[in-house]
Design brief:
Elements: H1 11-18, E1 68-74, E2 77-81, E3 89-97, E4 106-111, E5 114-115, E6 117-119, E7 129-135, E8 141-148, E9 155-163, E10 171-175, E11 179-185, E12 190-198, E13 210-213, E14 220-228, E15 231-241, E16 246-252, E17 260-268
Antiparallel strand pairs: 1-9, 2-8, 3-7, 3-9, 4-5, 4-8, 6-7, 10-17, 11-16, 12-15, 12-17, 13-16, 14-15
């Protein structure tokens, strides 16, 4: 809820809207400084220098999602494009290993020196699909480093950025099941990411991975990989959310000897 546009406005009101710690210091509330979003509604709040309570009339801790898909990258280290610097910017990686029948996978990820939260299936033999994310407020590019465990493939991943006032995901999930549905409460605005894989196996049934959702944002694929009928196969996608209701994000594929699994995460802008 936005702060009042006139009348009585207190330091407690500002803290209730934007968060922060006691004792309250207005210098913690510069626009774009971490607590106060750098948006048009907050244009009256300075980014530095003299700041007063009256600068906060009409201000709000509400931001747009500003989702951008920056494309694909690969390898265990390097540099990725992450767009315009913002204090509310989250960097999200949605990836797979290029030999999903291997016995290892991703174990840790850092983005621009920050330790990323990593979403993985529970078993080390089923790391074909993975996700990682971290807040990166500065810079238009970021370094990345990906650690792997026994006999892994090369990480391939898609880079997304979006704005959120939160420090992490609203919810995450993983499974080693051949088919699974993630049930997440969505937000307006927000974004969900999900994907899965199945490894090598017999030709029949063919190795086909399917993603589905009841979210109005539909399925926007990052990758759709299909080898021979005996596998492996993998798919990953995102879906923008616009309603504050429960939505489902599903993965299905035949059970194969070399493993299978799926991962998912959902984020709210506000």
């Amino acid at each position: 809820m936005a702060l009042p546009s006139s009348g009585v406005l207190t330091l407690d009101d500002i803290q209730t809207e934007f968060g922060g710690t006691n004792p309250i210091d207005l210098s913690d509330y510069y626009r774009g400084g971490g607590l106060v979003p750098d948006t048009a509604l907050n244009a009256g709040i300075p980014t530095s220098g003299v700041i007063s309570v009256t600068d906060f009339y009409g201000a709000t801790n509400v931001i747009n999602l500003n989702f951008v898909n920056h494309g694909v990258a690969s390898g265990t280290s390097g540099t990725i494009n992450i767009g315009t610097a913002r204090g509310t910017r989250m960097v999200h990686l949605s990836g797979y290993l290029n030999n999903t029948n291997s016995s290892g996978g991703v174990s840790a990820v850092s983005i621009n020196g920050a330790t990323a939260a990593v979403v993985l299936p529970a078993s080390a033999s089923r790391y074909g699909a993975w996700q990682a994310y971290a807040k990166v407020p500065a810079g238009t590019t970021a370094t990345f480093s990906i650690s792997r465990v026994t006999n892994p493939g090369t990480p391939v991943f898609y880079v997304s950025t979006f704005d959120t006032v939160n420090s992490g995901a609203a919810n995450t999930g993983s499974t080693t099941a051949a088919s699974f549905t993630f049930n997440f409460t969505a937000a307006n605005p927000g974004v969900a990411f999900w994907g899965g894989f199945t490894g090598l196996g017999t030709v029949s049934p063919p190795t086909v991975v399917t993603l589905s959702t009841n979210n109005p944002g539909g399925i926007n694929y990052f990758y759709q990989l299909q080898a021979a009928a005996s596998g492996p196969a993998a798919k990953g996608a995102y879906s923008l959310t616009s309603t504050t209701v429960n939505q489902t994000f599903s993965f299905s594929g035949p059970a194969k000897l070399a493993g299978h699994g799926a991962v998912a995460s959902i984020f709210y802008a506000n």
